[in-house]
Specification:
single chain; 305 residues; alpha/beta; Rossmann fold; seven-stranded parallel beta sheet; two-stranded parallel ribbon; 35% helix; 17% strand; globular
């Protein structure tokens, strides 16, 4: 039986991905810094990227690596130390993985790695595609260094797929989980100018992308994992209010940029600046989105059972 090796398997995307993988076809191995008990075809291996500790000797016939490891970019205020964690959790873990994999007698067929739309320039009028130049901010620098390590797998003949992931929509984590209580209390308003573009993807489409990339050899290179529809912050606010059965305030009412900057510091760039990103390359591999429109995506997420 083939094996799939996953880093970041306990995160939002990783945990949902594991539920969707065929346990009858693959053995699933999760690299984790914590100790977990094996269950239902899922096996855990402890590793420590900080100390370069990783033993893959127990895993046989690795077919695919799925690399999702990385400290949350919105998990804390962007202090010097937290910014270092964001960078090192991605770069160092990928470096360690490569060093161990390249020594294997039989190499995996492919690696599928997360990246981020933070690679691109902020607030562009033209949509950014996979060949666009990187921006010049902190996140752009992180992604450039991260992808440099990921692409080393390609240099040793492993099919390498990189997904630059946009805003993942899920009620179980990410931005929607943080916004939910605010909007339920009728406090949801646009942020800053409200004109900043949001490039997003429904969690189910994100999982489908990864699953498809495991089997489809046409996935090779860099893809922007964002839905075809790009909306601005004002439109996003209205759609979320509607999905939660809340009214929308007049456009004149917004959360001032100055207040957001004072509260969140440099991290405020995540919401005050827009990323105008296109998913054109995904059409080349014939990927069909289940949720191409924000209204339908939010309706599905908050549907009444």
């Amino acid at each position: 039986m083939k094996s799939i090796l996953i880093t970041g398997g306990t995160g939002l995307i990783g945990s949902k991905l594991i539920k969707n993988l065929d346990k009858g076809k693959y053995k699933i191995y999760i690299l984790s810094r914590r100790t977990y008990s094996d269950s239902k075809g899922v096996h855990y291996i402890k590793w420590n990227p900080k100390k370069s500790k990783l033993d893959l000797s127990k895993i046989k016939n690795i077919d695919t690596i799925i690399n999702l490891a990385g400290e949350s970019i919105d998990g804390s205020r962007w202090t010097y130390n937290y910014k270092r964690k964001i960078l090192e959790s991605r770069v160092n873990s990928t470096k360690l993985l490569f060093e161990k994999i390249k020594k294997m007698n039989i190499l995996p067929k492919s690696i599928i790695s997360a990246s981020a739309t933070g690679y691109y320039k902020n607030n562009t009028l033209e949509p950014q595609n996979e060949s666009s130049n990187p921006g010049d901010g902190f996140l752009s620098d992180v992604v450039v260094k991260w992808e440099k390590e990921i692409l080393k797998f390609k240099s040793i003949g492993i099919r390498t797929t990189i997904f630059r992931i946009g805003l993942v929509l899920s009620k179980d984590g990410g931005v929607l989980k943080k916004l939910y209580p605010i909007f339920k209390l009728f406090l949801g308003v646009p942020i800053g100018s409200g004109n900043q573009i949001i490039s997003w993807i429904h969690e189910k489409d994100m999982i489908d992308l990864i699953v498809k990339a495991i089997e489809d050899d046409n996935f090779d290179g860099i893809y922007n994992a964002v839905a075809p529809e790009r909306i601005n912050n004002k439109e996003f606010t209205k759609s979320l209010s509607k999905a939660l059965g809340r009214f929308s305030y007049p456009n004149i009412i917004k959360a001032p940029s100055l207040i957001i900057k004072l509260i969140f510091g440099e991290q405020s760039n995540l919401v005050l600046n827009g990323l105008n990103v296109t998913s054109k390359n995904l059409s080349k591999v014939k990927f069909i989105f289940k949720f191409s429109k924000l209204d339908s995506a939010l309706s599905e997420i908050y549907k009444k059972n």
